[in-house]
Specification:
Length: 101
Protein backbone atom coordinates (compact mmCIF):
# COMPACT_ATOMS: atom_id res chain seq x y z
CA UNK A 1 0.00 0.00 0.00
CA UNK A 2 1.45 3.38 -0.99
CA UNK A 3 1.12 6.75 0.77
CA UNK A 4 -1.84 7.84 -1.37
CA UNK A 5 -3.80 4.70 -0.58
CA UNK A 6 -3.03 5.15 3.13
CA UNK A 7 -4.27 8.75 2.94
CA UNK A 8 -7.55 7.71 1.37
CA UNK A 9 -7.99 4.93 3.92
CA UNK A 10 -7.36 7.45 6.74
CA UNK A 11 -9.77 9.89 5.08
CA UNK A 12 -12.47 7.19 5.16
CA UNK A 13 -11.85 7.03 8.93
CA UNK A 14 -12.48 10.81 9.09
CA UNK A 15 -8.85 11.81 9.70
CA UNK A 16 -8.53 15.59 9.37
CA UNK A 17 -4.76 15.18 8.95
CA UNK A 18 -5.38 12.95 5.93
CA UNK A 19 -7.76 15.54 4.47
CA UNK A 20 -5.16 18.28 4.94
CA UNK A 21 -2.51 16.13 3.27
CA UNK A 22 -4.83 15.38 0.33
CA UNK A 23 -5.68 19.07 -0.03
CA UNK A 24 -2.00 20.03 -0.06
CA UNK A 25 -1.10 17.29 -2.54
CA UNK A 26 -4.04 17.63 -4.94
CA UNK A 27 -4.94 21.34 -4.95
CA UNK A 28 -2.68 22.05 -7.96
CA UNK A 29 -4.25 19.12 -9.86
CA UNK A 30 -7.84 20.01 -8.97
CA UNK A 31 -7.31 23.72 -9.71
CA UNK A 32 -5.67 22.97 -13.06
CA UNK A 33 -8.52 20.69 -14.14
CA UNK A 34 -11.13 23.27 -13.12
CA UNK A 35 -9.25 26.05 -14.92
CA UNK A 36 -8.80 23.95 -18.06
CA UNK A 37 -12.45 22.96 -18.23
CA UNK A 38 -13.96 26.32 -17.38
CA UNK A 39 -11.26 28.41 -19.03
CA UNK A 40 -11.02 32.14 -18.52
CA UNK A 41 -14.55 32.46 -17.17
CA UNK A 42 -13.39 32.38 -13.56
CA UNK A 43 -10.94 34.46 -11.57
CA UNK A 44 -8.37 32.79 -9.30
CA UNK A 45 -10.47 33.11 -6.17
CA UNK A 46 -13.40 31.40 -7.93
CA UNK A 47 -11.14 28.51 -8.95
CA UNK A 48 -9.98 28.24 -5.32
CA UNK A 49 -13.58 28.17 -4.10
CA UNK A 50 -14.54 25.54 -6.67
CA UNK A 51 -11.52 23.45 -5.61
CA UNK A 52 -12.55 23.80 -1.96
CA UNK A 53 -16.01 22.55 -2.94
CA UNK A 54 -14.40 19.44 -4.48
CA UNK A 55 -12.48 18.70 -1.28
CA UNK A 56 -15.58 19.32 0.84
CA UNK A 57 -17.59 16.81 -1.21
CA UNK A 58 -14.67 14.37 -1.03
CA UNK A 59 -14.68 14.74 2.79
CA UNK A 60 -18.45 14.40 3.07
CA UNK A 61 -18.43 11.24 0.95
CA UNK A 62 -15.14 9.75 2.17
CA UNK A 63 -16.78 6.69 3.67
CA UNK A 64 -18.23 5.83 0.25
CA UNK A 65 -15.09 6.50 -1.80
CA UNK A 66 -13.54 3.66 -3.73
CA UNK A 67 -10.30 2.03 -2.70
CA UNK A 68 -7.14 3.31 -4.32
CA UNK A 69 -5.52 6.70 -4.65
CA UNK A 70 -7.28 10.04 -3.96
CA UNK A 71 -6.59 11.45 -7.44
CA UNK A 72 -9.27 9.34 -9.18
CA UNK A 73 -11.68 10.15 -6.35
CA UNK A 74 -11.04 13.88 -6.85
CA UNK A 75 -11.60 13.41 -10.58
CA UNK A 76 -14.94 11.67 -10.02
CA UNK A 77 -16.07 14.39 -7.63
CA UNK A 78 -15.11 17.09 -10.15
CA UNK A 79 -16.98 15.39 -12.98
CA UNK A 80 -20.11 14.88 -10.88
CA UNK A 81 -20.14 18.46 -9.63
CA UNK A 82 -19.03 20.32 -12.74
CA UNK A 83 -22.50 21.57 -13.66
CA UNK A 84 -22.98 22.83 -10.12
CA UNK A 85 -19.72 24.76 -10.47
CA UNK A 86 -20.85 26.21 -13.79
CA UNK A 87 -24.16 27.38 -12.37
CA UNK A 88 -22.72 28.52 -9.05
CA UNK A 89 -20.36 30.90 -10.78
CA UNK A 90 -23.01 31.83 -13.34
CA UNK A 91 -20.90 30.72 -16.29
CA UNK A 92 -24.01 29.17 -17.81
CA UNK A 93 -27.42 30.70 -17.55
CA UNK A 94 -29.79 28.55 -15.54
CA UNK A 95 -32.52 26.97 -17.68
CA UNK A 96 -35.87 28.55 -16.89
CA UNK A 97 -37.01 26.76 -13.75
CA UNK A 98 -35.47 23.46 -14.78
CA UNK A 99 -32.43 23.35 -12.51
CA UNK A 100 -31.90 24.39 -8.93
CA UNK A 101 -28.18 24.05 -8.07
Amino acid sequence: MNDEERELRALRCRSEMALQSIIERYTPYVSAVISNIIGGSMVGSDVEEAAADVFFVLWENASRSAAGAPRPSCGRVMRRNLLKVYYKFKILSTPAGNFAP
